[in-house]
Amino acid sequence: MTIVLHELVGADEARPFSPHCWKVVMALAHKGLPFERKPVCFTQVPGVEGGVSKTVPVIRDGSQVVADSFMIAAYLEETYPDRPSLFGGDGGQAMARFVEAWSQSTLHAALNVIALHEIADRLAPEDQAYFRPSREARLGKTFEQIAERRQAEIEGFGAKLTPLRVMLKSQPWIGGSSPLFADYIVFGALQWARVVSSAPLLEAGDAVTDWFERCIDLHDGLGRAVAAAG
What is the pLDDT of residue 1? Predict the structure, then answer.
Protein backbone atom coordinates (compact mmCIF):
# COMPACT_ATOMS: atom_id res chain seq x y z
CA MET A 1 0.00 0.00 0.00
CA THR A 2 1.30 3.43 -0.91
CA ILE A 3 1.88 5.85 1.97
CA VAL A 4 0.49 9.35 1.48
CA LEU A 5 2.72 12.22 2.59
CA HIS A 6 1.22 15.69 3.00
CA GLU A 7 4.05 18.19 2.54
CA LEU A 8 4.35 21.96 2.51
CA VAL A 9 4.69 23.95 -0.71
CA GLY A 10 4.44 27.54 -1.84
CA ALA A 11 2.91 28.89 -5.04
CA ASP A 12 5.00 26.39 -7.03
CA GLU A 13 3.89 22.90 -6.02
CA ALA A 14 6.99 21.39 -7.61
CA ARG A 15 9.24 23.07 -5.01
CA PRO A 16 8.50 21.57 -1.57
CA PHE A 17 10.64 23.37 0.99
CA SER A 18 9.76 22.37 4.54
CA PRO A 19 12.80 20.96 6.38
CA HIS A 20 10.55 18.68 8.40
CA CYS A 21 8.84 17.31 5.30
CA TRP A 22 12.22 16.69 3.65
CA LYS A 23 13.22 14.59 6.66
CA VAL A 24 10.22 12.36 6.04
CA VAL A 25 10.76 12.19 2.28
CA MET A 26 14.28 10.91 2.91
CA ALA A 27 13.12 8.55 5.65
CA LEU A 28 10.50 6.96 3.41
CA ALA A 29 13.06 6.57 0.61
CA HIS A 30 15.59 5.13 3.09
CA LYS A 31 13.03 2.51 4.08
CA GLY A 32 12.29 1.78 0.43
CA LEU A 33 8.58 2.39 0.96
CA PRO A 34 6.34 3.58 -1.90
CA PHE A 35 4.79 6.96 -1.16
CA GLU A 36 2.73 9.67 -2.80
CA ARG A 37 3.54 13.31 -2.14
CA LYS A 38 0.50 15.55 -1.61
CA PRO A 39 1.29 19.28 -1.82
CA VAL A 40 -0.25 21.46 0.88
CA CYS A 41 0.05 25.23 1.29
CA PHE A 42 0.01 26.96 4.68
CA THR A 43 -3.67 27.83 4.66
CA GLN A 44 -4.65 24.26 3.72
CA VAL A 45 -2.85 22.60 6.65
CA PRO A 46 -5.84 22.80 9.06
CA GLY A 47 -7.84 20.58 6.67
CA VAL A 48 -5.24 17.83 6.29
CA GLU A 49 -6.59 14.45 7.42
CA GLY A 50 -9.47 16.03 9.29
CA GLY A 51 -7.33 18.56 11.12
CA VAL A 52 -5.12 16.02 12.90
CA SER A 53 -2.23 18.47 13.21
CA LYS A 54 -1.48 22.19 13.07
CA THR A 55 1.59 21.45 10.96
CA VAL A 56 2.86 19.11 8.27
CA PRO A 57 4.32 16.60 7.57
CA VAL A 58 1.47 14.21 8.09
CA ILE A 59 1.38 10.70 6.64
CA ARG A 60 -1.44 8.27 6.08
CA ASP A 61 -0.42 4.61 6.04
CA GLY A 62 -3.58 2.63 5.50
CA SER A 63 -5.76 3.44 8.51
CA GLN A 64 -2.88 5.01 10.45
CA VAL A 65 -2.34 8.78 10.43
CA VAL A 66 0.85 10.13 11.98
CA ALA A 67 2.05 13.72 12.36
CA ASP A 68 5.44 15.24 13.30
CA SER A 69 8.61 14.27 11.44
CA PHE A 70 10.30 12.49 14.35
CA MET A 71 7.12 10.63 15.31
CA ILE A 72 6.75 9.56 11.69
CA ALA A 73 10.32 8.26 11.59
CA ALA A 74 9.74 6.35 14.84
CA TYR A 75 6.49 4.92 13.43
CA LEU A 76 8.22 3.79 10.24
CA GLU A 77 10.99 2.17 12.25
CA GLU A 78 8.55 0.25 14.43
CA THR A 79 6.11 -0.67 11.67
CA TYR A 80 8.69 -1.74 9.09
CA PRO A 81 11.52 -3.36 11.09
CA ASP A 82 12.49 -5.54 8.12
CA ARG A 83 13.45 -2.43 6.12
CA PRO A 84 16.77 -0.55 6.53
CA SER A 85 16.95 1.03 9.97
CA LEU A 86 16.58 4.78 10.38
CA PHE A 87 18.26 4.80 13.79
CA GLY A 88 20.47 1.73 14.16
CA GLY A 89 18.92 0.94 17.54
CA ASP A 90 17.47 2.69 20.57
CA GLY A 91 20.69 4.58 21.24
CA GLY A 92 20.69 5.96 17.72
CA GLN A 93 17.11 7.10 18.11
CA ALA A 94 17.94 8.88 21.36
CA MET A 95 20.98 10.54 19.78
CA ALA A 96 18.85 11.67 16.83
CA ARG A 97 16.76 13.61 19.34
CA PHE A 98 19.89 15.55 20.30
CA VAL A 99 20.72 16.22 16.65
CA GLU A 100 17.18 17.46 16.11
CA ALA A 101 17.41 19.77 19.12
CA TRP A 102 20.73 21.18 17.90
CA SER A 103 19.47 21.62 14.33
CA GLN A 104 16.28 23.40 15.33
CA SER A 105 17.77 25.61 18.03
CA THR A 106 20.86 26.58 16.03
CA LEU A 107 20.40 26.08 12.29
CA HIS A 108 16.65 26.70 12.06
CA ALA A 109 16.95 29.77 14.27
CA ALA A 110 19.41 31.29 11.80
CA LEU A 111 17.57 30.17 8.68
CA ASN A 112 14.31 31.64 9.94
CA VAL A 113 16.05 35.01 9.70
CA ILE A 114 18.04 34.38 6.52
CA ALA A 115 15.22 32.97 4.40
CA LEU A 116 12.20 34.74 5.88
CA HIS A 117 11.55 37.23 3.07
CA GLU A 118 12.42 34.68 0.37
CA ILE A 119 9.91 32.20 1.76
CA ALA A 120 7.21 34.87 1.83
CA ASP A 121 7.95 35.80 -1.78
CA ARG A 122 7.40 32.18 -2.87
CA LEU A 123 3.92 31.91 -1.38
CA ALA A 124 0.54 32.45 -2.99
CA PRO A 125 -1.19 35.70 -1.90
CA GLU A 126 -3.52 34.01 0.58
CA ASP A 127 -0.57 32.29 2.22
CA GLN A 128 1.46 35.49 2.31
CA ALA A 129 -1.39 37.08 4.25
CA TYR A 130 -1.11 34.27 6.81
CA PHE A 131 2.67 33.90 6.86
CA ARG A 132 3.79 37.40 7.81
CA PRO A 133 1.67 37.93 10.94
CA SER A 134 2.22 34.35 12.12
CA ARG A 135 6.00 34.62 11.82
CA GLU A 136 6.14 38.08 13.35
CA ALA A 137 4.18 36.76 16.33
CA ARG A 138 6.47 33.72 16.62
CA LEU A 139 9.71 35.69 16.36
CA GLY A 140 8.51 38.71 18.32
CA LYS A 141 9.72 41.18 15.67
CA THR A 142 8.52 42.75 12.45
CA PHE A 143 9.86 41.55 9.10
CA GLU A 144 11.84 44.76 8.86
CA GLN A 145 13.45 44.24 12.25
CA ILE A 146 14.28 40.64 11.39
CA ALA A 147 15.83 41.71 8.07
CA GLU A 148 18.35 43.85 9.96
CA ARG A 149 19.96 40.65 11.29
CA ARG A 150 20.04 38.79 7.96
CA GLN A 151 23.57 39.63 6.80
CA ALA A 152 25.07 38.86 10.19
CA GLU A 153 23.31 35.48 10.24
CA ILE A 154 24.60 34.68 6.74
CA GLU A 155 28.16 35.57 7.71
CA GLY A 156 27.98 33.53 10.90
CA PHE A 157 26.21 30.49 9.51
CA GLY A 158 29.35 28.53 8.65
CA ALA A 159 30.51 28.66 12.26
CA LYS A 160 27.23 27.11 13.41
CA LEU A 161 28.13 24.01 11.37
CA THR A 162 31.40 23.46 13.25
CA PRO A 163 30.21 20.40 15.23
CA LEU A 164 29.24 18.65 12.00
CA ARG A 165 32.43 19.78 10.24
CA VAL A 166 34.64 18.39 13.01
CA MET A 167 32.72 15.11 13.16
CA LEU A 168 33.10 14.60 9.41
CA LYS A 169 36.86 14.33 9.89
CA SER A 170 36.22 10.96 11.54
CA GLN A 171 33.29 9.51 9.61
CA PRO A 172 31.41 10.16 6.35
CA TRP A 173 27.92 10.41 7.85
CA ILE A 174 26.36 11.47 11.12
CA GLY A 175 25.11 7.89 11.24
CA GLY A 176 28.64 6.54 10.89
CA SER A 177 29.48 4.49 7.83
CA SER A 178 26.06 5.13 6.25
CA PRO A 179 23.31 7.76 6.61
CA LEU A 180 20.63 7.51 9.27
CA PHE A 181 17.71 9.72 10.26
CA ALA A 182 20.11 12.03 12.10
CA ASP A 183 21.66 12.87 8.72
CA TYR A 184 18.24 13.59 7.27
CA ILE A 185 17.49 15.98 10.12
CA VAL A 186 20.41 18.25 9.27
CA PHE A 187 19.96 17.67 5.55
CA GLY A 188 16.36 18.92 5.88
CA ALA A 189 17.57 22.24 7.30
CA LEU A 190 20.14 22.78 4.56
CA GLN A 191 17.80 21.60 1.81
CA TRP A 192 15.23 24.12 3.06
CA ALA A 193 17.83 26.86 2.59
CA ARG A 194 18.90 25.48 -0.79
CA VAL A 195 15.35 25.43 -2.19
CA VAL A 196 14.15 28.83 -0.97
CA SER A 197 17.20 31.07 -0.59
CA SER A 198 20.03 32.33 -2.76
CA ALA A 199 22.13 33.24 0.30
CA PRO A 200 25.68 31.82 0.09
CA LEU A 201 25.79 29.52 3.12
CA LEU A 202 28.09 26.66 2.09
CA GLU A 203 31.59 27.00 0.70
CA ALA A 204 33.21 24.81 -1.96
CA GLY A 205 35.72 22.37 -0.53
CA ASP A 206 34.19 22.41 2.95
CA ALA A 207 33.54 19.00 4.51
CA VAL A 208 29.94 20.00 5.27
CA THR A 209 29.38 20.97 1.64
CA ASP A 210 30.75 17.62 0.46
CA TRP A 211 28.51 15.78 2.94
CA PHE A 212 25.49 17.80 1.80
CA GLU A 213 26.21 17.00 -1.84
CA ARG A 214 26.29 13.31 -0.94
CA CYS A 215 22.94 13.72 0.82
CA ILE A 216 21.37 15.37 -2.23
CA ASP A 217 22.47 12.41 -4.36
CA LEU A 218 21.01 9.77 -2.02
CA HIS A 219 18.06 7.69 -3.15
CA ASP A 220 18.56 8.33 -6.86
CA GLY A 221 19.11 12.05 -6.42
CA LEU A 222 15.86 12.68 -4.58
CA GLY A 223 17.06 15.95 -3.09
CA ARG A 224 18.65 17.17 -6.30
CA ALA A 225 15.39 16.66 -8.21
CA VAL A 226 14.33 20.08 -6.87
CA ALA A 227 16.65 22.74 -8.27
CA ALA A 228 18.42 25.19 -6.00
CA ALA A 229 16.96 28.69 -5.68
CA GLY A 230 18.24 31.06 -8.34
Answer: 86
